[in-house]
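Q: Can I see a sequence and its folded structure?
A: Here is a first one.
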Amino acid sequence: MNLNYLLYEQNNKIGIVSLNRPEKRNALSRGLLEELAELLTEIGTEKKVNVIIVKGIGKVFSAGHDLKEVYECEPQELLQLFQTCYYTMRVIREMPQPVIAQVHGVATAAGCQLVAACDLAVASEDALFGTPGVKIGLFCSTPAVFLSRNIGRKKAMEMLLTGDFMSARDALLYGLVNKVVASGELEEVTQNMAATIAGYSASAIAVGKRAFYQQINMEDFQALNYASEVITLNSTTKDAREGISAFLKKRQPKWSD
């Protein structure tokens, strides 16, 4: 597909998607979101890679929605913009590959939402996260959804009500990111995390990702019952049989994909 707002490259089994609107601080316009959803859907369907990294070109990860676009939209157009964002976040959730956010600079509003929606996140030590919409009379209601499911109610409300930035260290403490590293190490550490995941069975990862999000809001034993069914079916797959056999014979497994 032709890309106007993104860059895409494949490094072995790792796919790297770069937000490429540095002149707009990688603002998530409707065009960019549509392109991102289409690209991720294609990657998920083709299954040429086992893991995805999403990062930003330029000085920041993403400053959120394009406010000029928001300001100029009629109400129905604005709803379509936010529904496009909804759809893009859903693609990230439902695609079989794990998605890792590689965050530098700032990730604000919908940019922070994108980080929270990804399965994993690695941030540089100088990265900042925020939902500052309250400062301009536009409460960050949509970013609040994934933010509150990452960091907990009280801290999420503090960010949403004050508009203050959260440091990378606090983002690690409260669970918004998985790792915080020196700026010069950000790409290497993210690539290493991706390479580790990419080395496992893609089918097992896909089963695990889907099951994780299915069970997370269930009651404990409802979740355990569901997970028991999933792992039973998983254990019968070619890759699971190969992995167990390799373990018992003390050799490296050879995955089918």
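Q: Show me another, different protein.
A: A second, unrelated one:
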Amino acid sequence: MSKVMANVSCVAMRGRALLITGPSGVGKSSLALALMDRGAELIGDDGVTLAQVGELIVATPPPNTEGLIEIRNVGLLEVPTARAPVAIVINLTPEAERLPLGHAAASLLGRDVPQVDLYPDTPYLALRAEAALEMHGLD
């Protein structure tokens, strides 16, 4: 079973995928770019294909925009892509709790994946996303 998700970005870090969700214009592509600057590889921008492979939900580039990422006010950048099992969902929302106790869960193809809500307007967003992957992401 597979599904193409629109309006999400996704990168791979150390063999694990961070699926970035949130409303349009919140900064999903910007966070993906910042994580790429920290060594992540693009899986998909503004869309990703998810498929169940055994017990894992694997993210792969979407066929229509594979290898392209938007740099707001600049244009589209072409980059190599990766694929990886989804380890965490990073949900960008202004309603994120300042000090949550643990994490939530997002359902992807009927499987629960850890979800961490992050406040989108901070220069340290990539550091927070990477820390969330290490603290709460699936191995």
